[in-house]
C-alpha cells in the first residue's frame, strides 16, 4: 500500500525548497510551519549554540624513563635484492 502521508510530506518539502530558491521567504516559512505542525518535519534548522573550538592536546614531553614508541608497521618494508650482479666484461668468444 502506498504511503500517502509520506507523499504529501515529500511534496511539501519540494514546494518549500522551490519557494526558498525563488526568494519567497514568507511563503516558504508558511510551508515550513505546516510541515512542522502536521508532520513533525523540520526544514528550517534552528540556530544551534556556537560549538566550542577544538583545542588539540599539548604534546607530552619526552622523558628518559618513557618506553620507546611502537614501530610503525604501516610503513612498507624495503625490497630485498639478491646478490650484486657482476659488471665485468663478458668472456672472450672462443674461436
Q: What's the pLDDT, averaged over the residues?
A: 80
| Spatial extent as radius of gyration | 35 Å
Structural class: mainly alpha
Low-confidence stretches: none
What is the strand content?
A: under 5%
Number of strands: 0
Helical segment count:
2
Determine the fraction of residues in helical runs and give it as a percent range.
25-40%
Task: Characterize the biggest β-sheet.
Answer: none
> Secondary-structure element order, as H and E?
HH
In terms of quaternary structure, the protein is single chain
Measured distance between first and last alpha carbons: 95 Å
**How does the overall form come out from the CA principal axes?**
elongated
Structure commentary:
This protein has 95 residues and is mainly alpha-helical. It has a domain of 36 residues. The chain is 36% helix and 0% strand. It has two helices and no strands. It is elongated, with a radius of gyration of 35 Å. The mean pLDDT is 80.
How would you describe this structure in keywords?
mainly alpha, 2 helices, 36% helix
Strand-helix topology:
Blueprint: H1 4-22, H2 25-39
Helix pairs in contact: 1-2
Concise summary:
The chain has 95 residues and is mainly α.
Amino acid at each position: 500500500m502506498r504511503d500517502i502521508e509520506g507523499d504529501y510530506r515529500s511534496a511539501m518539502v519540494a514546494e518549500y525548497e522551490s519557494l526558498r530558491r525563488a526568494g519567497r521567504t514568507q511563503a516558504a516559512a508558511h510551508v515550513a510551519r505546516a510541515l512542522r505542525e502536521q508532520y513533525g518535519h523540520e526544514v528550517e534548522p534552528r540556530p544551534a549554540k556556537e560549538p566550542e573550538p577544538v583545542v588539540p592536546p599539548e604534546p607530552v614531553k619526552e622523558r628518559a624513563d618513557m618506553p620507546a614508541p611502537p614501530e610503525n608497521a604501516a610503513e612498507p618494508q624495503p625490497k630485498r635484492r639478491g646478490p650484486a650482479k657482476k659488471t665485468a666484461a663478458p668472456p672472450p668468444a672462443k674461436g
